[in-house]
């Protein structure tokens, strides 16, 4: 399966308008934003867990990055309420679940082979970063020199510019933006190749946005099973 897999082109997806697609596990559905591969894939998705749903324990063969959007996501290591951000590097494993239901933003199999940093940032945690013009707050969630991840709040009516030298991916968490001819609402997702400017005007209720400044596909990204002949991989 190939969805928005041409990384040389800008893409915007209004994911809240997409139909939910069932995963192989009952009670876990997804909206696919980017996908390269079959059921085992390099992927970016919005995933919804119904109340009392569980997902089988699995190994993160290519790493997993999650931002909890709604509800509380859980595994055997703890509870992660809305606003939590965490990274599970290649080789880690867990058994996800949600007692009350939740919605999460997930990036799978997009880690570099040498990225072994495992972090958990609960709501409010992270390092305060320098504010760009138009921003009310900026929390640095992760920065290893290869990629930088932030969660920012932008002020109503402001025009905000984000530089883009390496590649840029973003998700509107709440509020809204106008970007070119698009109106971006909660769960609108975008990806811009390096050099494509990101200049947006914030709507009257303001906006919270997740930002990743990094190569859209790391040169050292872990290969998929079909690319290596292996099969110890994750599904979601």
Automatic annotation (TrEMBL):
Keyword match rRNA processing: no
InterPro entries per UniProt: ChrR-like_cupin_dom, RmlC-like_jellyroll, RmlC_Cupin_sf
Record carries keyword Ion transport: no
Keywords: Dioxygenase, Oxidoreductase
Membrane-crossing segments per the record: none
GO molecular function: dioxygenase activity
Domain ChrR-like cupin: 9-111
Pfam families: Cupin_7
Name of the protein described by the UniProt record: Quercetin dioxygenase-like cupin family protein
